[in-house]
């Protein structure tokens, strides 16, 4: 909005307003705006959630028993504390004529509404089960397939349906229209992967911010023809604007972490985890770094794989590979304290992000 209000009509006459042309300035503004909004609405929103939810988020009885005691009464749907600042800051600082911005916002809001419905049903029924698994997957993949289709329409014909391979110069795999399935899997898979990771205070939000920070750089470089050519990346016109959205995500995440730090005053719930993962997946598809997302977000992949392995092992052999899945609960059962698990997983997320960023130069 600021891009239209200040830069386009007045930049030629007022030099200061030319700042609104630059992604770096608008990204910085998006971080601070989202952080400010989160701080302003946080206390009131948490009080409202506590009042409306009463006993708070239903705690799994088959999970770690200390959670039943320590986390009982903590409200969920804290994802609203992330989504409201993200959407607001993006609308204020991004170039709203950019189609990629609207596609990412579409996925974020759609997944946010789905997560909100899931959390609402859990609270209403006082059960860890919300929206049915089948309906949830249908909606997630439906939104993801549509978003991928829209991205393919925006891309140039030469780039549409292509999957870039990291570490290899100019190597791409052409899927044609079948890429809708690939992109849909990346987006929906990322949404569920972050959801699996959200199980301890502060565990999910920091790796999401770390991954978002990595993709701020990726989006900026891929969307800049000179940098993309120098680094031998696929130049994707207009994707640089996604850096503003990701910056807003980082600012909102910092604001949420203020209230989610141990002991958490609020949980993000599916209202936050699903749209955050979906947003990262959508950005990765847009900038053609889907495989790199699996590296940068390797922690989310690990959490998801631990669940899949646990389920398959138990169904086939009746035995469990981990004491409890997702894997962060396994370490809890081994006696690790919650802050220890969270901080060590943060460190792993930083290392994986650095490895992912190395793909920009190692070719």
- Pick out the low-confidence regions: none
Q: Main β-sheet, in a few words?
A: 2 strands, antiparallel
Tell the overall outline: globular
> Beta-strand level of the residues, as a percent range?
under 5%
Structural class, from helix and strand content?
mainly alpha
Spatial strand order of the main sheet:
1-2
Your description of this structure?
- This protein is mainly α.
- It has one domain (2-294).
- Helices cover 67% and strands 2% of the residues.
- The chain has 15 helices and two strands.
- The protein has a two-stranded antiparallel ribbon.
- The longest helix has 31 residues, at 23-53.
Chart the SSEs and their pairings.
Elements: H1 2-10, H2 23-53, H3 65-70, H4 80-93, H5 99-125, H6 133-154, E1 162-164, E2 172-174, H7 179-197, H8 205-222, H9 225-230, H10 242-260, H11 269-286, H12 290-296, H13 298-317, H14 327-333, H15 338-358
Antiparallel strand pairs: 1-2
Helix pairs in contact: 2-4, 2-10, 4-5, 4-10, 5-6, 5-11, 6-7, 6-11, 7-11, 7-13, 8-10, 8-11, 8-15, 11-12, 12-13, 12-15
List keywords for this structure.
single chain, 363 residues, mainly alpha, two-stranded antiparallel ribbon, 2 strands, 67% helix, 2% strand
């Amino acid at each position: 909005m600021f891009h239209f209000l200040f830069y386009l009509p007045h930049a030629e006459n007022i030099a200061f307003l030319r700042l609104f042309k630059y992604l770096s300035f608008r990204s910085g503004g998006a971080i601070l705006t989202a952080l400010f909004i989160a701080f302003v609405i946080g206390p009131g929103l948490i009080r409202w959630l506590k009042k409306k939810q009463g006993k708070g988020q239903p705690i799994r009885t088959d999970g770690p028993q200390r959670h039943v005691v320590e986390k009982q009464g903590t409200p969920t749907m804290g994802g609203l504390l992330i989504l409201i600042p993200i959407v607001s800051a993006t609308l204020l600082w991004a170039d709203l004529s950019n189609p990629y911005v609207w596609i990412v916002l579409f996925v974020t809001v759609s997944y946010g509404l789905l997560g909100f419905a899931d959390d609402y049903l859990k609270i209403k029924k006082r059960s860890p089960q919300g929206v049915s698994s089948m309906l949830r997957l249908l909606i997630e993949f439906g939104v993801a397939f549509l978003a991928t289709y829209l991205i393919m329409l925006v891309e140039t014909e030469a780039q549409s349906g292509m999957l870039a391979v990291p570490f290899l110069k100019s190597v791409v795999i052409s899927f044609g229209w079948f890429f809708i399935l690939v992109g849909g899997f990346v987006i929906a898979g990322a949404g569920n992967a972050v959801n699996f990771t959200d199980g301890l205070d502060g565990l999910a939000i920091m790796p999401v911010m770390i991954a978002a920070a990595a993709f701020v750089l990726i989006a900026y470089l891929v969307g800049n023809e000179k940098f993309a050519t120098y680094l031998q990346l696929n130049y994707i016109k207009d994707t640089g604007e996604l850096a503003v959205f990701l910056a807003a995500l980082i600012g909102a995440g910092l604001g949420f972490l203020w209230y989610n730090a141990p002991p958490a005053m609020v949980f993000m719930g599916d209202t936050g985890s699903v749209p955050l993962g979906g947003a990262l997946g959508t950005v990765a598809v847009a900038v053609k770094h889907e495989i790199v997302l699996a590296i940068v977000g390797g922690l989310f992949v690990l959490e998801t794989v631990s669940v899949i392995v646990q389920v398959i092992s138990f169904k086939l052999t009746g035995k469990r590979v981990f004491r409890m899945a997702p894997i962060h609960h396994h370490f809890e059962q081994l006696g690790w304290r919650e802050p220890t698990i969270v901080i060590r997983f943060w460190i792993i997320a930083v290392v994986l992000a650095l490895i992912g960023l190395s793909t920009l130069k190692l070719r």
